[in-house]
From TrEMBL:
Superkingdom of this protein's organism: Bacteria
Cellular component, GO annotation: plasma membrane
GO molecular function (one): ATP binding
Gene Ontology biological process terms from the UniProt entry: amino acid transport
Keywords: Amino-acid transport, ATP-binding, Cell membrane, Membrane, Nucleotide-binding, Translocase, Transport
Pfam family, one: NIL
Xref: SMART domains: AAA, NIL
InterPro entries in the record: AAA+_ATPase, ABC_transporter-like_ATP-bd, ABC_transporter-like_CS, ACT-like_dom_sf, MetN_ABC, MetN_ABC_transporter-like, NIL_domain, P-loop_NTPase
Organism: Rhizobium wenxiniae
Protein known as: Cell division ATP-binding protein FtsE
Length: 372
């Protein structure tokens, strides 16, 4: 199905100009400039720094994922974008407008240009799918005839053309999120914020919702900023990623680059949790080796190294000691990407031979830890 912008009726090819131009072109859709957010600090309560000097941009047309563990500051970051929170210091700028400086009326206008989807969908149970999607338009004072003309195509767009009269209790989780997406698009936003939108869904439904968001981004040119604790979500959908840890962005860049060569421990830990390692292996990983332990290493194949028979050569180099534990080829940011998780003796002499081999061949690797 081709997507036609529901409200404007403008053909996607026209609206999609400027899609995914990346961080290199023009004004960003969102910029955080030295943003700090503190909570508390009054009435004798100690202040808590939730965000600590965030500098970060979201390019027009990009799908940017902010990933971090619980409590890292993701929700606070997103609430600064739609003006639900104000920074303690620094600036949040959305498409050229500083959010913190807006009066209440300006904030209302801004929020109309920002759609939002939530983990628990936030639908009104007393309203049908149609009426849930219509709600932001009613609030904006749009007349009933225009609402009718807009809501139908939006429900078609999310694949729920036949569910207009259904109540949330009659819909599955994935269908409820589709209603949430249609509602978020009702006011023709230029930015879509997604707050853990797939966290309550099973893996298959998650994939179908992510595919829908990807299609909306590609065909409507809508910028997407999503927060998640799942690397799988970032890998599947995002063009760019920022890793947040205790209020700091510790690493950011194109998803492919960050995934191929993570620089920060938090990124590595998040990546390791997305590898398809058996449970017994994942839970047994240690940070430092004891005598007799094995090193657990992820080999990464892309670009040049993807076409060379390096695994066989590694086995030849280290002898028959190499165990292959997990692996596969996937597509990240539109490029093929292979990962293989292997283990071999953590004896210094073996590690040295392996490292020499990696240096000679240019094979990218990441030590995930050590296992008994
Ligand atoms: N209104 C508030 N008052 C005091 N502390 C707050 C407030 N909002 C958030 N915090 C604290 O700021 C930190 C970051 O919270 P935030 O909700 O942004 O994290 P998160 O990464 O979204 O986590 P989660 O995924 O668990 O929602 C947490 O320690 C939280 O307790």
């Amino acid at each position: 199905m081709t997507i036609q912008h529901a409200a404007t009726g403008v053909a996607p090819s026209v609206r999609a100009e400027g899609i995914n131009q990346g961080a290199s072109s023009g004004t960003p859709m969102v910029s955080f400039e030295g943003v700090t957010k503190r909570f508390g600090g009054t009435g004798g309560q100690p202040a808590f720094t939730a965000l600590d000097g965030i500098d970060f941009t979201v390019a027009h047309g990009a799908i940017t994922g902010i990933i971090g563990r619980s409590g890292a500051g993701k929700s606070t970051l997103i609430r600064l974008v739609n003006g639900l929170e104000k920074p303690t210091s620094g600036k949040v700028i959305v498409d050229g407008t500083e959010v913190g400086g807006l009066p209440e009326s300006g904030l209302r206008d801004l929020r109309r240009q920002i759609g939002m989807i939530f983990q628990h969908f936030n639908l009104l149970s007393s309203r049908t799918a149609f009426d849930n999607v219509a709600l932001p338009l009613e609030i904006a004072g749009v007349d009933a005839k225009t609402i009718k003309a807009k809501v139908g195509p939006l429900l078609d767009l999310v694949g729920l053309g036949d569910k207009a009269g259904s109540y949330p209790s009659e819909l599955s989780g994935g269908q409820k999120q589709r209603v949430g997406i249609a509602r978020a698009l009702a006011t023709d936003p230029k930015l879509l914020l997604s707050d853990e939108a797939t966290s309550a869904l099973d893996p298959e439904t998650t994939q179908s919702i992510l595919e829908l968001l990807k299609r909306i981004n590609a065909e409507l040119g809508l910028t997407v900023l999503l927060i998640t604790h799942e690397m799988e979500v970032v890998k599947t959908i995002a063009t760019d990623v920022a890793v947040i840890d205790r209020g700091l962005i510790v690493e950011s860049g194109r998803v492919f680059d960050v995934y191929a060569s993570p620089k920060h421990d938090t990124t590595r830990t998040l990546l390791a949790s997305s590898l398809a390692l058996p449970e017994w292996l994942r839970t047994g990983i240690k940070h430092s080796p004891s005598a007799g332990d094995r090193a657990l290493v992820r080999l990464v194949f892309f670009g040049e190294t993807a076409f060379q028979p390096l695994t066989g050569r590694l086995v030849a180099e280290l002898g028959s000691d190499v165990n292959i534990l997990a692996g596969g080829i996937e597509e990240i940011g539109g490029k093929p990407f292979g990962s293989l998780v292997v283990s071999y003796s953590a004896e210094p002499a073996v590690i040295e031979r392996a490292n020499r081999f990696y240096a000679e061949t240019g094979l990218s690797t990441e030590v995930l830890g050590y296992v008994a």
